Amino acid sequence: MAKFIFNLPDIGEGIAEAEIVAWHVKIGDRIEEDQPVADMMTDKATVEMESPVSGVVKAVAGAEGDVISIGSMLVEIEIEDEEEAGDDADASAKSEAVAREKAIDIESDVKAATAGGGDLEPISSVEVQEQEPIALSKMTASPAVRARAKDLGIDLSAVRAKGNHVRHADLDAYLTYGSAQGYRAPGALDRRADEAIKVIGMRRRIAENMAASKRHIPHFTYVEEMDVTALEVMRADLNANRGERPKLTMLPLLIAAICKTIPDYPMINALYDDEAGVVTRYGAVHMGMAAQTDAGLMVPVIRDAQDKNIWQLANEISRLAEAARNGSAIKEDLSGSTLTVTSLGPLGGIATTPVINRPEVAIIGPNKIVERPVFVGDAIEARKLMNLSISCDHRVVDGHDAARFVQALKKVMETPVLLFAD
After folding, report:
1. Which CATH number fits the domain that encloses residue 79?
2. Domain boundaries, position 384
3. Which one of the listed residues 304, 398, 400, 401 is annotated catalytic?
């Protein structure tokens, strides 16, 4: 038997170290040549490392979340004979070539982590977990009581009741006094055990980039209320006559309004290279859409949004949402944004203070639409109102400019015919 040291190869230009995000083998495993052994993440790529030889795993570099240097040991493998051991250089060269070929560029995913927003209406990663059925034993209860007990996580067989029929009053007594547990405060049910979760991989990148954005960018947030009654009426009419076209949400209308407004406020659609001390103001609007997906926070990008009508924007939003959700988005779909919109969608919210997607200088966050009574002249009418938040980089954007931009955007949102005016 001989020992083969599989060192972490150079998997990217200028990369000095990589993080172990997943092990596919453990000590004692028999592995074959080209079998995946670990996933390594750098600042720019996630790479699946494959074993260049067959043998038995004798040692690994560390635990998931550990960072190791390029050229250091990744896996120690016991191989069959000395002849194979002499081929270390060839095997290492092969593993480096394979690693480079299998690199998956996610640099834009990492940038997306600074967006600080919630998921957009078309993108949802919330999974509803079904609870285990409640053990009723011989106890009976009405559907309403059973539903309440299920919501509270109470096993009806543990509830003391007169006879074997549990009523709401019995649940109240159980919540207040417990079952053979003496007095306890209402709602003080059994607690979940504490859980320590190591922050690794994409979650670590998100944490690092969120911290960098807040550390380097002096944020300020401006919030304004908008009356979107007319816009919602127009949206309903357009949807009623859309034919084969996609159903319009608020998002494509908002993006269209932003693109209509932005030419007079170029300081909002810009990137700031703080190391070089250069602000680049863009003529085209490459609109990022901050979204929460199963893979983490991502920012799909609508390129040249200013050249698209509301139906084209709706189609592009749908396409990018699906690509982000199923993992088929390519690099061009996830990079190059100049301005970002972030929304909590159905989760709503009165106001948000979104975190800027560095090196952009602004991020816009629409909030939930609510219907409230409003004075219109001397009359009181029910109107649909929405708060809109904008966070800006105070090194580049003055508060006065941000307020003027939002007021101009408000005019378009409240007079939606302007969306179609030249």
Report:
1. 2.40.50.100
2. 200-420
3. 398
Which residue of the set 24, 216, 219, 394 is catalytic? 394
Tell me if residue 398 is catalytic.
yes
Indicate whether 97 belongs to any domain.
Answer: yes
Alpha carbons 167 and 155: distance in angstroms, whole number: 13
- Sequential DSSP letters for 273-331: ETTTTEEEE-SS--EEEEEEETTEEE--EETTGGG--HHHHHHHHHHHHHHHHHT---G
8 A C-beta contact, residue 266 and residue 248: no
Ordered mean pLDDT values, 10 residues apiece, the chain (422 residues): 89 80 93 91 79 93 90 91 55 58 48 48 36 49 82 82 79 69 49 82 83 95 97 96 92 97 98 95 96 78 97 95 84 92 83 94 96 94 96 97 98 95 80
List the one residue out of 143, 147, 139, 146 whose CA is nearest residue 165: 139
Is 394 annotated in the active site?
yes
CATH number at residue 231: 3.30.559.10
Q: Are residues 100 and 226 in the same domain?
A: no
